[in-house]
Amino acid sequence: MGNAYEVYALRYAIMPRTPHMNYLAPDPHETAASNLDYFVWLIRGHGRDILVDTGFNAAEAKLRGRTLTLNPVDALAAFGVRADDIADVVVTHLHYDHAGNLDRFPGARFHLQDREMSYATGRCMCFGTLRHPFSVEHVTLMVRHVYGERVTFHSGDGEVAPGVTLHRVGGHSDGLQVVRVETARGPVVLASDASHYYANMHRRSPFPILYNLGDMYEGWDIVARLAGHPDRVIPGHDPIVTEIYPRASDHVDAYSLHLQPSRSFEK
Ligand SMILES: [Zn+2]
Ligand SMILES: [Zn+2]
Predict the structure, then answer these.
(1) What spacing in Å lies between the alpha carbon of 195 and ligand 2's midpoint?
(2) Cβ distance 202 to 264 under 8 Å?
(3) Based on the number of CB atoms within 10 Å of its own CB, is 234 exposed (0-12), middle (13-18) or buried (19 or more)?
(4) How remote is the CA of residue 6 from the centroid of ligand 1, in Å?
(5) Are 51 and 87 in contact (CB under 8 A)?
(6) Cβ atoms 53, 17 nearer than 8 A
(7) Using one digit for the tens of pLDDT, what is the confidence trace for 204-226?
């Protein structure tokens, strides 16, 4: 595998939830807790550290009543990666839990879909429900990065480095993109919020933050095709990830996604 990378999920926050909050069509008989985990992802290899999403900080956590374990920038440091050294940051979409801390990466270029910038600064933000997952401070910082010539815009499919490609799926947010990474076990797809949980995709029941239901359904097919195997799709917020992938650090909640999981979703 010429372009194989290592991929790590770093968990930086958690939120207690029940199943009825996680599915557009919840199962009324299902009542066990179904928590939401928050991650950023780090792609390492060939002399590069590529960060996928930037999480949120303590002030944002307080504002929204979330429990921040550790700011993801500090989690990176504990993992041996300096934010100052990161040259490429992929922002899957501009929701508050994926696009905070944008002032903490002084040397980075930000990779974003055209449609996400348009969506987050356009007429849909006049509607409270669609606006709620965004922070105007984060979006404003991204506008500043555009003016500072630090944003690489992608439209549909794009490439960050050989073996690391971006693919717009939309659905959850109009410009949501997923990341496909070559690894020794084949291509791993960081689905981000194309599927919060494995079960959103497997049951075909979306997480109830939605911009376009049709794109959401199409997105699951795109993600499946890009990965080529169900065990190579990584959902954006599922605690199961931390149960089935090997721990990669004694200091932070980091998990090796380039290694085989202990459970298979193959039918
Ligand atoms: Zn989101
Ligand atoms: Zn999210």
Answers:
(1) 9
(2) no
(3) buried
(4) 24
(5) no
(6) no
(7) 999 999 999 999 999 999 999 99
